[in-house]
Amino acid sequence: MNQTKLYIIGNGFDLWHGIPSSLGDFKKYAAQMAQEVYREVEEYLPVDENWGDLELALAELDAEQLTENLGHYMTSYSNDDWSDSGHHDFQYEVTNVVERLSTNLHALFADWVRKLPIPTRYNAPKLLSHVDTQALFLTFNYTDTLSSVYGVNPSHILFIHGRAAQPNDELVLGHAWDPQSRQSLNDRPDIEEVDTRQVEANNIIDDYFSSTFKNSADIIARYSSSFDALTSVEKVVVLGHSLSSVDAAYFHALLEEPAVANAQWLVAIRAEKEREEKQQRLAEYGLCLDRTSYMFWEDA
């Protein structure tokens, strides 16, 4: 194993190999397979047209719109139609929505990932020329593309967010906004005056933010031995990772390793316009830009 070279693999790697693994592809799958989940995402999460920012959007659930839309289930106690049997109707409907946006969405996502068609070396539409199959690999993907196409031994690969080929692996999907850093919906001075049903609904929505949180700190701690083993790394190659802030914790952890911080970083870009954005992200994570260079995918 070549422990002096580390590859960081993102979804752009799978896309380059012809795998329909974009979140836009997932959007199409959701629309076909789970229309209620699809509808709730479109209604309550500020996703872009192709759901490319889905993980970030999970942290921006429009709780006010949600409770307003379902407010007709919270019948006034003075209404002639009021009965004790309807006391939990509102909370029940709120629960249904947040479950579709959390548990059901996650299960749908995992099902979609596990059905993605993974090519082999013999039918991949194109191949990279310089992949060092003996290197170390940190992949944010769930697929076995590295092994299927390039023959990389899975023991060289850290599947930081789970491996689809392992049926019992949880495939991690979530936002990066720590629930402990956000104010509870019930943290308000007039809470004693708020309808009990609204208070309970707020608790349900608070739990949603916790359940959709990608706890990167716990994941990093779980794989601490893998991060600690990067003491010999001299070169880091980034293939297909957007360097998005949703994964910032992982890059901060990597750069806490002196060898990784002092290594030469080589980042693949599709076009020249990507260079500035990726430079800015790496600088924000604390990497010295004198240690970075860029290449086009055709040269990777």
Give an overview in words.
- The chain is 41% helix and 11% strand.
- By secondary structure, it is an alpha/beta fold.
- It has helices spanning 11-16, 23-33, 35-44, 54-57, 63-69, 89-101, 103-114, 145-150, 196-211, 216-222, 224-228, 248-255, 258-262, 273-285, and strands at residues 2-9, 135-139, 157-159, 235-239, 264-269, 292-296.
- The protein is elongated.
- Strands 3-2-1-4-5-6 form a six-stranded parallel sheet.
- The two termini are 20 Å apart.
- The protein is built from 14 helices and six strands.
Q: What is the strand and helix layout of this fold?
A:
Blueprint lengths: L1 E8 L1 H6 L6 H11 L1 H10 L9 H4 L5 H7 L19 H13 L1 H12 L20 E5 L5 H6 L6 E3 L36 H16 L4 H7 L1 H5 L6 E5 L8 H8 L2 H5 L1 E6 L3 H13 L6 E5 L4
Parallel strand pairs: 1-2, 1-4, 2-3, 4-5, 5-6
Helix pairs in contact: 2-3, 6-7, 6-9
Summarize the structure.
The chain has helices at 11-16, 23-33, 35-44, 54-57, 63-69, 89-101, 103-114, 145-150, 196-211, 216-222, 224-228, 248-255, 258-262, 273-285; strands at residues 2-9, 135-139, 157-159, 235-239, 264-269, 292-296. It is of the alpha/beta class and 300 residues long.
